[in-house]
Amino acid sequence: MSPRQEDVIGQVNGDFGRWQLRTILLIFFLKIPSAWLMAAIIYTAPSPRKGEYYCKPPEALKENFTKNWIMVPHSVQEGTNTDREFDIDMCHLYENTIQNNFAATHSNYSNPFRKPKAQQKIIPCEHFQHNSKFESLVTQFDLVCSRQVLVSVSQTFHTIGTLVGGLITKSALNHISPRKLMLVGMVGQIICGNLTGMMPKFSLHVIFRLLTSAFCCFMYTTGQVILTDITGGQAKVIVRCLFELFWSIGLILLPGISIFVDDWSQLYYVISSFTIFLLLLNRWIADSPRWLAKHGKYDEALQELLESATINNKNIPVDLEEQLREYGSFIKHDKSLSYLCIWDETTNWKYVLALHWAWVWASFLYNSMILAIRQFGVDHIHINTVTMGFAEMVGVILGLFLILYTKRHWLWAGISMISTGLLAYLIWLIPSNLGETQRIGLGMILCLGIKGASAVSMSVLTTCSGELVRRNCRRTLMASVVIHSRFWLIFSSLSSALSLIHSLAPLTMFASLAVLNGLLMCYLNTEFWSKEQQGSARVPSLAVYRKSLAFIRMKRKPVMPNKISKLEFSRSISIRDLWMESKQQKSKYVRNSV
User: Fold this and answer.
1) Sequence ranges of the domains in the chain
2) Where is 74: in which H helix or E strand?
3) What is the mean pLDDT of residues 10-39?
4) Helix axes of 233-242 and 436-464: crossing angle, nearest 10 degrees
5) What's CA 462's distance to the chain center, in Å?
6) Residue 4 pLDDT > 60, yes or no?
7) What is the 3-state secondary structure (H, E, C) of 276-324?
8) Which end of the chain is more exposed for a tag (fewer CB within 10 A), N or C?
9) Structurally, what CATH architecture does the domain formed by 1-49+132-335 represent?
């Protein structure tokens, strides 16, 4: 690279400064509404409690017969002597009861459970009566019994929108600058998010959920592009990890919003309108100078660099505009290689394949476990969501620590996944005679372990996946693993259907995926680990310090004592060198003794 082709943008911007901090914070806030719209299904379609719905009675039925209507026509489990009300199957009816005049037949019926049920055909109920206080998707669209699977369908459309939005963003960035595409995403998310809460039909609701998710993808994907461009060095690693921290903050704030909202439509209005605040601050979000220079928009790129240098108080080259034009001409031809470059001989294809599936399982756990807390009941849903958010925050911070201060961050991330996954199997050993609160608390503790470990794994994958291939293939690799994981994430919402088999089946599946992801991360560590990270040395004792320092001074002692060089005795020494001198001193003593 000639002097005129050096990264003048990186030189002017620097790794980090006040100019970067302003843009970073505003882009970080974009993660909050995105997290709200992803997890909104927890509060807009909560699992109904027992007794909160029953088959809708005929219009002619008087109000004083409602209790008998609930107990007589609905099928009842045989062989139960206590708590019979909770054993009633609210999803099916006896056909004869619908055909006959119920009020006339049962007006004086004292014990409806004794009613003979021989030779009565059971049919599914078509319309339901709901008596829950919160107006939700479940109550509006009768998402109970056989229609309960439509809750997962709604979430599936959200994940499809994420996949489609990512593909559109990748293509649109060839023609639209990241900041302008982010602006499109903000406006689209506000409009479609509010329309999602207005739709009178479930089919329209899921379509607008898909569009809202796609526009959210516009926002945070372009945000990642800008963050990657304006930061450098270790600051880029820290920003990439902490970007997910605001996703966790969004999860923590969502329960507080839902407490003050009694209708699912109003909840969508609130969480979708938050972006209006960020839209007003969009003018203070910097665009990508490197993208602008690459696409020939030199005046706009130069304006961004001048603003950066002013706010960061940095010097600029006298011929900045000329250098910027030459650098823009150079990077215009620097295109990412084709998809096949990640499968060439430079990296074993087994590691690339393992990385793709590690992304799938980590993304699956990171996004699906927050939705699985619906299985722990509505009464504890607020505190469970908050604790899940805190577990994510701890995992992100721990992942950042492993990346910055350990050599084998792949290994430690894998060990955390394997250990928490194996511990989660203990949920089968929780005694059934414990109270509901105790059982839910123990189950949540095991879930929090997997949730935190998945955040560690995602931090390492997001930041360090590019280590597997050469530099000019990294963009292609990241696009491949993200698209691959988002495709399989479409099926993640169907994991809640496993609860029909057994209430513990979803958590068991999460535990198995955690172990599998951990094994893949450990496998990647066998070849890819930080050879530059030196780790931390032991703290020397005073005896080691004094002996080693005396040994060093003796080696540096000049031939003529009267002419002592101040440079020799003022020279600093690292703690590692101090330990090395100590080892050399010991080995010399052993040789002399022999």
Assistant:
1) 1-49+132-335, 53-131, 341-536, 542-593
2) strand 74-76
3) 90
4) 150
5) 11
6) no
7) HHHHHCHHHCCCCHHHHHHCCCHHHHHHHHHHHHHHHCCCCCCCHHHHH
8) C
9) Up-down Bundle (1.20)
CA pair distance 231, 236, nearest whole angstrom: 5
Q: Which residues contact 323 (CB under 8 A, 6 or more apart)?
A: 4, 6, 8, 317
| Full-model pTM | 0.80
Residues forming beta bridges with residue 75, ordered by sequence position: 89
User: Same CATH fold, 341-536 and 1-49+132-335?
Assistant: yes
Distance CA 229, CA 285 (A): 13
Edge-to-edge strand ranges of the sheet holding 122-124: 74-76, 88-94, 122-124
DSSP helix, strand, coil percent of the chain (3-state; round to 5): 70, 5, 25
- Whether residue 535 has pLDDT greater than 60: no
Q: Mapping DSSP to helix (H, G, I), strand (E, B) and coil, where does residue 54 land?
A: strand
Q: What is the pLDDT of residue 112?
A: 43
Query: Is residue 562 pLDDT above 60, yes or no?
Result: no
Q: Which amino acid is at 77?
A: Q
Can you tell me the mean pLDDT for 438-449? 84
Locate all alpha helices (DSSP H) within 313-380, ordered by sequence.
320-332, 349-372
Q: Strands 53-55, 128-130: parallel, antiparallel or unpaired by DSSP?
A: antiparallel
Q: What per-residue confidence (pLDDT) applies to 212?
A: 93
Q: Which residues fall within 8 angstroms of residue 47, CB to CB, at 6 or more apart?
A: 138, 374, 375, 377, 378
pLDDT of residue 107: 44
Q: What angle do CA 231, 478, 283 make, to 5 degrees?
A: 40
HEC assignment per residue over 410-438: HHHHHHHHHHHHHHHHHHHHCCCCCCHHH
> What whole-number distance in Å separates Cα of residue 279 and Cα of residue 507?
39
